[in-house]
Amino acid sequence: MHNGMKNNLDSLYFQEHPFFEKCPHCDAALMENAKYCGQCGNSMNHPAETSPLNGSDMHTQKTPWQLISRAIGLWVVLLSINGVLGLIGHAIDLSSPYYDLGAEILSAFLILAVFSDSGIVITPLIRNWGFKGLGSFIGIIAGLLFMYIFMWLYFKLALSIGIEQISYLSDFKKHHWPLWSAFVLLCLFPGIFEELAFRGFIMTSLEKVGSPREALVIQAAMFSILHMLPTIFISHFVMGMVLGVIRQRSRSLYPGMFFHIAWNAIVLLEEIWI
Amino acid sequence: LARVGPRWTAATQPTAAKQITRQEAAMPWTCPDCKSNNSDELKQCFCGYPNSEKNDTTEKSLKTCPSCHEQMPAEDKFCSFCGKTAVVLTEKEKKKIRKASKWILAISIMFIFFGTILGFVQKSTADKAIRNLAQYEESDIWETPINGKKYTVGELRAQIDREVILVFGTNYFLAAIMFGLYLYSRKAPFPAMVTALCVYLAVIVLNSIIDPATIIQGIIIKIIFISALIAGIKTSLVARGLTPTQLNA
Fold first, then answer.
1. Closest residue of B to A95, CA-based?
2. Burial environment of residue B196 by CB neighbours within 10 A (0 to 12, 13 to 18, 19 or more)
3. What's the angle, vertex CA A101, arms to CA A100 and CA A104, rounded to 5?
4. Which of B12, B17, B198 sits opposite A225 (nearest CB)?
5. Looking at residue A164, what is its pLDDT?
6. 3-class SS of residue B25
7. Which pairs from B23-31 meet CB under 8 Å and 24+ separation?
């Protein structure tokens, strides 16, 4: 093995605990050998190179209830898009890719509208590139592998009690839409905008009220519930947790977006080939 | 991915494979008393630290973490060793939270109650449908297409049986989730209350997609449950030491 590569892998697994005297998130002074920040509760095991969510940003001029209601508000807006489109579909029985197109464009538009009006700053997450050399790629591939094995087991179990997997491509095939449109509408759009909404907006505003762990759990739960199928609550909760951990460790949205798009593409490719 | 290439090569160079040592990570030393930045070497500050009077009484300003029993500064909100919140609730606050989380239990019981009723209603209609099908053979084809597809009678029977199980299963599953959230809310009220509110809202929307008439059915109960959960979120914030409608420092 190449020497440099070996060093790099060593540094991945045997890295000494980095020593911080100030929390990279909120600038509070830390206790000696602290594993977590005493003021904001963030973990010091995976400290950031830079500190995107720094002190000035922690204390926004928003009350806790304003922050929570904005997070839940965005979620309710996304839920009501599903609800309204579902009601329309109920009335005129439409099962066409135009449904996906409408839902994606509407939710993208509303997410951006709520963002611009919320006063919750996520620019540090967008400015930070997030990928750090080989480590992040090994992490993402390991994460995808873990999710693949987990989902395979989950849906095998679900099939054994009689819950069938949904076909994502059937509507696209039925209406003769090209394959790339399915990839744009089912991978690219959700990948970008769900990350912006859940790991960006909702998680950031909840982190300012609760501890980072609570924010992680809540956004994962919201993410899974929004998919509106009780059978996939658990699987998507795990997915939301994985994406949330990626966002917490990288302090950026891009690795999560990459992971999300890659995962959705894997699901579609599996449906095409198998 | 254009920016990744050069980083990758740089990272694989022997010299570039850095470890984050203390010196590299060293930011200016921060005085624990007045939080101003000073030189790292001296560990002294113009405010008098470490010789100030404040530090003679360090033992008084410590408290014990309720989760892992480590010592920690009294003003910290989270434990530096286990990362859990260090707020110790009074009996009154505990009681308030227990009261709020009982609403989640109430929703769980409601799901079981209505799930059982709906399940048996579904079962009686299913039995009727099976009786109507009794005169046909398994392999006969039912002439009226359902969702644009023709089924054999055997397939229809299986589907009818499955729908009964689906009604029972979905309601009991949601009740189980709510019961789990109730147990979780006694440990961590804030995330449990928010999640319970989201699950309840999603169930309302899901029901109204399946049957639009359910939007108005029991609307008073729905409003009561939603406002109780919102009040529960606010209670859990108060217990956290936050005032929901005031800016925190």
1. B147
2. buried
3. 80
4. B198
5. 75
6. helix
7. B25/A18, B25/A19, B25/A20, B25/A47, B26/A19, B26/A21, B27/A20, B27/A21, B27/A22, B29/A21, B30/A21, B30/A22, B30/A29, B31/A29
Please count the residue pairs, one from chain A and one from chain B, whose beta carbons lie less than 8 angstroms apart.
178
Rounded Cα distance, A228 and B210, in Å: 12
Are A134 and B243 within 8 A, CB to CB? no
Least confident range from B9-13, B82-86, B109-113, B212-216: namely B9-13
The pLDDT score that the predictor gives to residue B49 is 65
Residue A106 burial by Cβ neighbours in a 10 Å radius (0-12, 13-18, 19+): middle
B21 reaches A (C-beta below 8 A): yes
**Contact B238/A at CB under 8 A:** no
Name the token pair of B36: 């101003």
Chain A residue with CA closest to B205: the answer is A83
Out of B82, B195, B234, name the one closest to residue A221 (CB).
B195
pLDDT in the model for residue B55: 46
On whether any CB of chain A is under 8 Å from the CB of B58, the answer is no
Give the integer Cα–Cα distance in Å for B129 and B164: 12
Place of tokens 């499955």: B162
List of chain A residues whose C-beta atoms are within 8 Å of the C-beta of residue B175: none
CA of B225 to nearest chain A CA: how many angstroms apart? 16
Point out the residues of chain A with pLDDT beneath 50. 1-18, 48-59
| Backbone CA torsion sign across B130, B132, B137, B141 | negative
Residue A208 CB partners (closer than 8 Å, separation 6+): A58, A60, A62, A64, A67
Q: Which two tokens stand for residue A270?
A: 């599996």
Top pLDDT among B240 and B38 is at B240
**pTM (predicted TM-score):** 0.77
CB pair distance less than 8 Å for A233 and B244: no
Please check whether residue A226 is in contact with residue A75, taking contact to mean a CB–CB distance below 8 angstroms.
yes
What's the complex ipTM?
Answer: 0.82
Alpha-carbon distances of B221 from A80, A253, B96, B112, rounded to whole Å: 20, 40, 21, 16
Q: Which of B103, B91, B116 is nearest to B185 (CA)?
A: B103
**What gap in Å lies between CA A23 and CA A7, rounded to an integer?**
27
| Residue A265, both tokens | 């593409």
Phi-psi region of A27 (alpha: psi -120 to 50; beta: other; left: phi over 0): left
Give B161-186 pLDDT, tens digit per residue. Answer: 888 888 899 899 999 999 999 999 98
Residues of B (115-154) whose Cβ lies below 8 Å from A: none
> Which positions in chain B touch A40 (Cβ < 8 Å)?
77-78
Probe site for chain B from A27, A42, A59, A63 (most B CB atoms < 10 A): A63
